[in-house]
Amino acid sequence: MQSVLLEIIYEGDHCIPCVYMLETAEEAVAGFGDQVKIQLVYLRREEGGRRYRELSKQLGKPAPIPSIFLNGRLYFNITPPVEELQKAIQDILQSGG
Q1: C-beta separation of 28 from 89 below 8 A
Q2: Quick one: how many helices (H) and strands (E) in the chain?
Q3: pTM of the model
Q4: Which one, 28, 40, 54, 85, has least CB within 10 Å?
Q5: The dihedral sign for the CA sequence 42, 38, 83, 63
């Protein structure tokens, strides 16, 4: 079964745009079950900082905060409508990658 890793560049709960993006992502993935995993790239933790650097290196510039990566690729640098995020996820699942 194809799956999607949804990573959110997340500064912390004090960052209202970050919290809003997380809430939007949680709502968007509710119907996908085990096909989608949400992972916070929490910048205030060591492992989050490492992942942030990896994603930024792939982009060739610092990754936006907050932002959504799907399977390691930047998809949204602003909070998208729930339906738009669901469509992006569905497109990945249907394409197999």
Answers
A1: yes
A2: 3, 4
A3: 0.94
A4: 54
A5: positive
For the stretch 8-32, pLDDT in tens is 999 999 999 999 999 999 999 999 9
> Which residue in this structure is represented by tokens 């992502």?
25
Q: Smallest Cα–Cα separation from 23: which of 89, 85, 88, 93?
A: 85
Pick the CATH number of 4-95 from 3.60.15.10, 1.10.10.10, 3.40.30.10, 3.60.70.12: 3.40.30.10
Residues 34-74 have pLDDT tens digits of 999 999 999 999 999 999 999 999 999 999 999 999 999 99
